[in-house]
């Protein structure tokens, strides 16, 4: 049984996350169509919530992967990487092959360096050098961060163990804000939406910390009261959203304060919101998050994330409705023709591997 079926609300939160990304890109695609005296840029920037949506994805990923690993008596790295490969690679590389084919055919103009970065999961270190048509592979920055996390964290958890891994999490949570501050002090013109692993890893670490300390937290009376409070539950995502929005206006929230403290508080709010939604899945918000439409959107969120990028390009002249229809059509095709067959193959091969294994080899749930 997949972990999603054991931990409710996660797919619904994924649906919220991908909705924020799509909304942001709709706004970016919509801006060139506005008349000269249309909505002011500052107003539209409030709807550019894509980076916040990706941050939510990161917190979920840190929580989910760590929860899976902690369920195992012994972490089997080779099985973990095998399962991640069949979960992540097929849809991603299929997308990239389509983009490569369109580039070779002359329909797109993407540099070889940009494509190389996309194929090697290093886009997050080249995104600042983006050319105009880099848009079609630019969203690979977050997938690169995820892949780098998959490479580092399971091995760290295996080597250090659960208790000492807390020190590693604490180090990341302390180091990332300092690194962001150093980068911003060195180059004040640098955007506050960071992309490199060392500047965003604390979002993943916040989810990891929740997974490791969740049992302890749930035994604390003050935390139990917070989980039982609708006011506290609603204030957490509100605070995360407010911090994100204020970060766009240095006059209201200075950039150094935002990158040094604001992002950390935002991550904590998202992590608590995740736990609150899981704990209160039978409440009103939980019933919405676990409704069939939101769960389905969450299930196909990976394919949606991949395919929303080309169809929501600011340079496309298609009507917005047509763009959205194409996004969902492409995502459904990717999910049913690429993702699901790859997952079936993974289950088949994992089943054969387990049937031959001796001892206590680790078994990871489908995610």
Task: Describe what you observe in this structure.
This protein has 367 residues and is mainly α. The chain has one domain. It is 74% helix and 0% strand. It contains 16 helices and no strands. It has helices at 3-6, 10-30, 41-45, 50-70, 77-104, 112-119, 135-138, 140-186, 197-218, 221-228, 230-246, 255-279, 284-289, 292-299, 301-311, 320-356. The radius of gyration is 21 Å and the shape is globular. It starts with a helix and ends in an 11-residue tail after the last helix. 38% of the residues are buried.
Keywords:
367 residues, disordered C terminus, 74% helix, mainly alpha, 0% strand
User: What is the CA-atom radius of gyration, in angstroms?
Assistant: 21 Å
Largest sheet properties:
none
| Structural domain tally | 1
Mean pLDDT: 89
Binned strand content: under 5%
Poorly predicted tracts of residues: 1-5, 357-366
N-end to C-end Cα span: 10 Å
What is the count of helical runs? 16
- Secondary structure tally: strands: 0
Shape: globular
Return the string of H and E elements.
HHHHHHHHHHHHHHHH
Helix content: over 70%
What structural class results from the helix and strand content?
mainly alpha
Concise synopsis of the structure shown:
The protein is mainly alpha-helical and 367 residues long. It has 16 helices and no strands.
List the helices and strands and how they pair.
Blueprint: H1 3-6, H2 10-30, H3 41-45, H4 50-70, H5 77-104, H6 112-119, H7 135-138, H8 140-186, H9 197-218, H10 221-228, H11 230-246, H12 255-279, H13 284-289, H14 292-299, H15 301-311, H16 320-356
């Amino acid at each position: 049984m997949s972990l999603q079926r054991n931990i409710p609300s996660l797919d619904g939160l994924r649906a919220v996350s991908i909705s924020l990304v799509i909304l942001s890109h709709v706004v970016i695609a919509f801006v060139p169509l506005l008349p000269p005296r249309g909505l002011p840029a500052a107003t539209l920037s409030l709807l550019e919530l894509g980076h916040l949506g990706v941050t939510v994805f990161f917190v979920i990923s840190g929580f989910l992967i760590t929860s899976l690993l902690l369920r195992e008596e012994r972490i089997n790295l080779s099985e973990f990487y095998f399962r991640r490969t069949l979960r992540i690679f097929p849809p991603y590389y299929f997308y990239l092959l389509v983009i490569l084919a369109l580039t070779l055919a002359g329909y797109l103009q993407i540099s070889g360096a940009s494509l190389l970065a996309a194929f090697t999961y290093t886009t997050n270190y080249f995104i600042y050098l983006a050319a105009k048509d880099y848009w079609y592979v630019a969203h690979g920055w977050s997938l690169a961060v995820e892949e780098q996390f998959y490479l580092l964290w399971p091995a760290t958890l295996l080597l250090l163990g659960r208790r000492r891994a807390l020190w590693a999490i604490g180090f990341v949570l302390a180091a990332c804000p300092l690194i962001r501050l150093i980068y911003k002090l060195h180059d004040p013109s640098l955007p506050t939406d960071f992309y490199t692993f060392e500047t965003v890893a604390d979002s993943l670490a916040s989810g990891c910390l929740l997974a490791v300390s969740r049992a302890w937290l749930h035994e604390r009376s003050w935390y139990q009261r917070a989980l039982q409070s609708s006011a506290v539950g609603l204030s957490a995502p509100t605070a995360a959203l407010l911090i994100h929005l204020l970060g766009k206006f240095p006059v209201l929230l200075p950039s150094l304060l935002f990158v040094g403290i604001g992002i950390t508080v935002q991550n904590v709010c998202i992590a608590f919101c995740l736990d609150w939604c899981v704990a209160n899945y039978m409440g009103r918000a939980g019933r919405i998050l676990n409704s069939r439409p939101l769960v389905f959107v969450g299930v196909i969120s990976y394919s949606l994330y991949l395919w929303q990028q080309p169809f929501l390009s600011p340079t496309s002249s298609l009507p917005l409705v047509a763009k959205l229809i194409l996004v969902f059509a492409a995502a459904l095709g990717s999910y049913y023709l690429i993702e699901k067959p790859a997952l079936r193959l993974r289950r088949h091969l994992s089943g054969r591997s387990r049937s031959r294994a001796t001892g206590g080899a680790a078994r990871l749930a489908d995610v």
